[in-house]
Amino acid sequence: MRILGIETSCDETGVAIYDEEKGLIANQLYTQIALHADYGGVVPELASRDHIRKTTPLIQAALQQAGLQAEDIDGIAYTCGPGLVGALLVGSTIARSLAYAWNIPAIGVHHMEGHLLAPMLEDNPPQFPFVALLVSGGHTQLVRVDGVGQYELLGESIDDAAGEAFDKTAKLLGLDYPGGAALSRLAEQGNLERFVFPRPMTDRPGLDFSFSGLKTFAANTINQAIKQEGELTEQTKADIAYAFQQAVVDTLAIKCRRALKETGFKRLVIAGGVSANKQLRQSLAGMMQQLKGEVFYPQPQFCTDNGAMIAYTGFLRLKQGEHSPLEIEVKPRWAMTELNAI
Ligand code: KG4
Ligand code: ZN
């Protein structure tokens, strides 16, 4: 079985082909980051228009990369939510139309399930059950995972997502959107002692997160530094980036440890854009070593949005005979707990 995967939920057009026997045989990605950079964030209408321009050529490129023709594809998986409605509509319309023309089944995939299952594409995939920490630009969730589609939400952010907090703080430091990765590079030059940010919601029980206060804390720290120094030096920026990142990483680690204790599980999966963060990976790896458990994460290119995770997730569901009806339906808001177990 060979599945074509199409991801267009936000600002990346991703197309990939997953082959049941050979694994991933094509992977194409076009990022719109430059298009949105001038606006300091994703402009939904521009995103939709760019997906229209890029999706079909990327499908052709993926087929060519795999040395395949349209008739070699057995099914199509497309992201149908959550995400930007216009962007989702582009991928869903193209996917459904091709499936109709090629007379093959298609399935609408949940974007966060795609992220959650991305570590399965690695050489050493995690076994079920595990705790998953999903950290992206739009979501921060701790999930108990007993199998594909067997998800229990243990906790989530009550305000900003971790990636959103990274991006907003990066913007305050004068970095281009999306600044998460750039902030993390800047933090490498930072001084560990100079600033200490709070670890929000860690002093009370529960597994929910709140990151919006950290952005305010960063804004206040920046204003104070400007008052004292006249202007923000590169070193001060790096010191603030370091302290902010450390606070996010520590907070995530504390809640992961709690979730593991609560479930009794020894395996932790991290996925979504922020799981590319080196400091987070290091910190969780150290913690899991202490707990005599194991941490799993996707390779960096599959942490952020991509077509491979959608092709793979769609493959698992299409293989079980699941498929979506012909109507083009998108779900901009969609809880992962509504998914069927397979
Ligand atoms: O999963 P993703 O590509 O898109 C969503 O589904 O939202 O995640 C994008 C988010 C952005 O907020 C970006 O700044 C953040 O992931 N990100 C990072 C890093 N790489 C990407 N945040 C911190 N450190 C990184 N290395
Ligand atoms: Zn994503």
Automatic annotation (TrEMBL):
InterPro entries: ATPase_NBD, Gcp-like_dom, KAE1/TsaD, Peptidase_M22_CS, TsaD. It is an enzyme of class 2 (transferase). Its EC number is 2.3.1.234. One of its GO terms (molecular function) is hydrolase activity. One of its GO terms (cellular component) is cytoplasm. Substrate binds at L134, V135, S136, G137, G138, D167, G180, N277. Its main location: cytoplasm. Its cofactor is Fe(2+). Signal peptide: none annotated. Binds 1 Fe(2+) ion per subunit. It is found in: Cytoplasm. Residues 24-312 form the Gcp-like domain. CDD domains: ASKHA_NBD_TsaD_bac. Keywords: Acyltransferase, Cytoplasm, DNA-binding, Endonuclease, Hydrolase, Iron, Metal-binding, Nuclease, Transferase, tRNA processing. One of its GO terms (biological process) is tRNA threonylcarbamoyladenosine modification. Fe cation binds at H111, H115, D305. It catalyses: L-threonylcarbamoyladenylate + adenosine(37) in tRNA = N(6)-L-threonylcarbamoyladenosine(37) in tRNA + AMP + H(+). Belongs to the KAE1 / TsaD family. HAMAP family: TsaD. Required for the formation of a threonylcarbamoyl group on adenosine at position 37 (t(6)A37) in tRNAs that read codons beginning with adenine. Is involved in the transfer of the threonylcarbamoyl moiety of threonylcarbamoyl-AMP (TC-AMP) to the N6 group of A37, together with TsaE and TsaB. TsaD likely plays a direct catalytic role in this reaction. This is tRNA N6-adenosine threonylcarbamoyltransferase. The gene is gcp.
